[in-house]
Design brief:
The structure holds two protein chains of two kinds. By secondary structure, chain A is mainly beta. Chain A contains one helix and 18 strands. In chain B, the strands form seven sheets. Chain B has a four-stranded mixed β-sheet with strand order 10-9-15-16, with no helix packed on it. Chain B has a two-stranded antiparallel ribbon with strand order 1-3. The longest helix of chain B is centred in the N-terminal third of the chain and has 26 residues, at 122-147. The chains are: A mainly beta, B alpha+beta. Chain B: Residues 291-632 form the RagB/SusD domain.
Chain lengths: 237, 633
């Protein structure tokens, strides 16, 4: 009797539920945040934008993280989306969309799509050159002011960061040097240098590496997120 | 025959009493809950409704939630499951988010019903009403601290089932409007509430004034310092207060504080003047005729309403259970306490290339602000009469240098590898510190504030009835000092601050010229440590993003810029003592100290602009399209 009951219970559970009743999202949306096609590098895990899919009961944004090299990717269901970069995000401003006449961008996802999102950065770091000289990393770059109208902002400071991993930014660094915005005489020729620390086996890395990663970060006054140059590996040997 | 008669009687009695009349069916009064009608006739029952509302008073850091004290580098969390707090960089933007309209509705219902309760005595009714309005002001104050302006709802709203809820949706009020509401509401209840310093756990006139002084001070400093962070504002004023309102708020804060000060019913606790450290600790646990405490959350032994702060934080050396030692105050905090000659100085650990040797473990802390030892249990002091045993290891002299031997458990024994040393001797303190060992003093310190010296307070079966102090006279003095300072009355400001400093053992008074913003910030940080002020204070001064800027700090940074308001404080450092083993040398048996970083401190904390005002959840936003989002999310 007991056995029969168990069999019936098992049989019921086997037929009780269907598998998931819809497929997982499969369309990928990816690309870069760019200015005139050039990716804008940012700090890791700090810059996000939002995707909204209207038409459902409750509203809630899908937050998409922008990686440190300015790239992003999201796995989505097919549908019509609205893309918005919240005003506080990134060292840039949104461009007014021709279609919606505001900062919202309409997006149709039918299968995977590769799309760069154009924005207006306050500055661009051009021709960043990071070189090793003995135990010092020298940096040279040019800061080009992109926004020059009423929304223009000054440079608060410029940083040169070194780290053991590819994540190089304001919270992930081994060594850094800072240059005050007021001390910049020629934005077209900025020179900085920082010593490579002797001990490079900090958190997250074991043993001394014979290479470090470096990049330049620019803090724009009144903007929370920093603008960065591309991460560059510097071989010490 | 007799039998039939019996049956007949039984049947008749069942028929006549067993069933109710039709019109009484389903109208039986419930036996397991009280109806509104019943409650609002009896002041005892109303009081128990009110007790529930008091119990829901909003808190962030409190003694019943010890781990929250370890988020902001004031203390290290010495429990295995809590190390993430020193390992994460960013504070989530929803961490201290608060949207408690359930509580607000219950308070509104209470106010509405109390106004209609004619059967209560007039005095009792007026007091209940004032208490509920006091609590409603408290929750709105807490909302505006965390979220900025919120919808100001003062009536219980009812849904009419029409299918259209839009009439229930209200837009956010301005941040200043919520502060104005809190201030004016407290103005109108303060004269109804009893003016009795003996009442601590229910609202009194002084509690209303103390809350008013704090609220006005918050509003004033947001108005004054909001300009430093222009991104933290909304065009509609839901976040941010216009700078020209600052002086009016500071004036209000000063008036409210002075009303308590000149009222003369409260004073600083000075019952144990012979030991100023003990005096400062006793101010929190002494519940009989405490002249300083204004408003508390009270506890009672053997009533089910006890708290476990002492259980959670008792030192291992006197522990009554196999646990304790969780909140370890950081060296960063300990360094803030001045020397008694009014100067800032790091603890003297090194003298050139050599250590500084101390006869006793506590000597390094001598000659400091009494609040240091009153807030923090220091090596060399006692708790519950038992000497603390906090030291990290033995430094023995071998091969021309000091070597360290230590253990990996409380009070471990080992043999010091020097010829002639005893085979087994203790190599680490009974209280630790052992790096990574939970319940040991991993920062080199335990917390003392709110710790209950009563026997049994550390037992799971007994726990403690020490109260949680929400408002006390010292904060009122600090509020007055800050408001006076902001209004340019530095003379008045120093008068108030000097009272606190005198109680802490300082003999030289601060002059008017020494009253600076840094000084105001400093005095609040050390006087009010572990009382839930640190984060909200840094927030209203708009220095939180500078104090927690996400940048690594070194041991040298920790000992630098002491007493500076925007001193970077992103990582916890520890100070560990060592016993010298060097037979034949003058330093044998003495103590030295080293500054170290616990290995579980891996990340530097970062307070983003989005942390100034917490995120409003997307479910709340989509329920009410009239709400605007907070900035920087």
């Amino acid at each position: 009797m007991k056995k029969t009951f168990v069999y019936i219970a098992l049989a019921l559970t086997a037929f009780a539920c269907k598998k998931d009743n819809y497929d997982p999202p499969s369309s990928s949306l990816s690309g870069h945040i760019t200015y005139q096609g050039v990716p804008i590098n940012v700090s890791s895990k700090d810059v996000t934008f939002e995707l909204w899919e209207p038409g459902w009961g409750k509203n809630g944004a899908i937050t998409v993280n922008v990686k440190e090299d300015g790239s992003y990717s999201a796995l989505l269901f097919d549908g019509n989306y609205k893309l918005i970069i919240p005003p506080s995000q990134g060292p840039f401003r949104s461009i007014t969309n021709a279609e919606t006449k505001n900062d919202t961008m309409l997006l149709t996802i039918r299968g995977s799509r590769d799309m760069n999102i154009e924005v207006m950065p306050y500055y661009m770091i051009r021709d960043a050159k990071l070189t090793l000289n003995g135990t010092t990393v020298n940096a040279n770059c040019k800061l080009e002011k992109i926004i020059t109208d009423v929304n223009a902002r000054n440079i608060e400071s410029v940083f040169l960061y070194l780290n053991q991993t590819q994540f190089v930014d304001g919270t992930n660094y081994l060594a850094r040097t800072a240059l005050n915005g007021g001390d910049i005489t020629d934005p077209a020729n900025i020179n900085m240098s920082v010593n490579v620390p002797d001990n490079r086996s900090g958190n997250g890395a074991s043993g001394d590496q014979d290479y470090v990663f470096a990049r330049i970060g620019v803090k724009i006054s009144g903007v929370e997120d920093l603008l960065f140059s591309e991460v560059q590996q510097i071989n010490l040997k | 025959m007799k039998k039939y008669l019996l049956i007949l009687t039984a049947v008749i009695s069942i028929i006549t009493t067993g069933c109710l009349k039709d019109d009484e069916f389903l109208t039986t009064d419930p036996t397991n809950l009280l109806t509104d009608d019943a409650v609002w006739k009896s002041s005892d029952l109303v009081l128990s409704v009110l007790a529930d509302l008091y119990d829901r008073y909003p808190e962030q850091q409190t003694i019943t939630n010890w781990a929250e004290f370890t988020n902001f580098d004031e203390a290290f969390p010495s429990e295995a499951g809590q190390y993430w707090r020193t390992k994460q960089v960013d504070y989530p933007t929803g961490w201290w988010s608060l949207w408690d309209y359930g509580y607000i509705r219950d308070l509104n219902l209470f106010v509405q019903k109390c106004q209609a309760a004619n059967e209560l005595g007039a005095d009792a009714r007026a007091r209940f009403l004032a208490e509920a309005r006091f609590l409603r002001a408290a929750i709105y104050f807490e909302e505006v601290k965390r979220m900025g302006g919120v919808p100001l709802i003062l009536e219980p709203m009812e849904y009419n089932f029409s299918g259209d809820p839009t009439y229930l949706q209200h837009a956010r009020a301005k941040e200043s409007e919520i502060y104005d509401f809190v201030i004016s509401e407290l103005d109108s209840v303060k004269n109804v509430l009893p003016d009795d310093a003996g009442i601590k756990s229910r609202a009194t006139r002084a509690a209303a004034l103390a809350m008013q002084s704090r609220a006005a001070l918050y509003a004033g400093s947001i108005a004054k310092y909001g300009g430093a962070t222009p991104l933290v504002s909304l065009p509609g004023g839901e976040v941010g207060i216009a700078a020209d309102k600052a002086n009016a708020y500071f004036t209000k804060a000063l008036e409210a504080s002075q009303a308590i000060i000149t009222g003369g019913k409260y004073s600083l606790y000075k019952k144990k003047a012979e030991d100023l450290q003990e005096n400062f600790a006793a101010l929190f646990y002494d519940k009989s005729n405490n002249p300083e405490v204004i408003f508390v959350q009270d506890f009672k032994l053997k009533s089910g309403k006890t708290q476990d702060w002492t259980l959670a934080n008792q030192p291992w050396s006197s522990a009554e259970e196999q646990q304790g030692g969780r909140v370890n105050p950081s060296l960063n905090l300990a360094l803030q306490y001045e020397k008694l000659d009014n100067t800032f100085a790091p603890f003297a650990t090194n003298n050139g290339n050599d250590y500084v040797y101390y006869e006793n473990p506590g000597d390094i802390f001598a000659g400091r602000d009494a609040r240091l030892g009153g807030t923090i249990m220091l090596p060399g002091s006692r708790f519950k009469g038992v000497p603390l045993d906090i030291w990290a290891g033995v430094m023995y002299w071998k091969d021309g240098k000091y070597n360290i031997i230590s253990g990996d458990n409380f009070g471990d024994r080992d043999s010091i590898p020097v010829a002639g040393a005893p085979r087994s001797s203790q190599v680490v303190g009974t209280d630790g510190p052992v790096d990574g060992l939970q319940y040991s003093a991993q920062s080199g310190f335990f917390v003392r504030k709110f710790m209950d010296p009563t026997v049994g307070s550390g037992q799971i079966g007994t726990r403690s009835d020490v109260w949680w102090v929400r408002f006390r006279y010292a904060e009122v003095l600090l509020n007055a000092a800050e408001a006076a300072f902001e209004l340019g009355q530095t003379g008045l400001s120093s008068t108030y601050i000097n009272q606190l400093r005198e109680r802490a053992g300082f003999t030289t008074q601060l002059t008017d010229a020494q009253m600076t913003f840094d000084r105001i910030v400093h005095e609040r940080r050390i006087e009010l440590a572990f009382e839930g002020h640190e984060m909200f204070d840094n927030k209203r001064w708009r220095i939180a993003h500078k104090v927690w800027n996400g940048e690594n700090i070194s041991a040298a940074d920790v000992t630098a810029n002491l007493g500076k308001a925007d001193r970077v404080n992103t990582m916890i450092y520890a100070m560990w003592g060592y016993k010298i083993y060097h037979p034949g040398n003058a330093n044998d048996g003495k103590w030295v100290y080293r500054i170290v970083k616990p290995s579980n401190v891996t990340a530097a904390h970062r307070f983003n602009l989005g942390n100034y005002y917490s995120v409003i959840g997307s479910d709340i936003l989509s329920n009410n399209p009239k709400l605007v989002k907070n900035p920087n999310h």
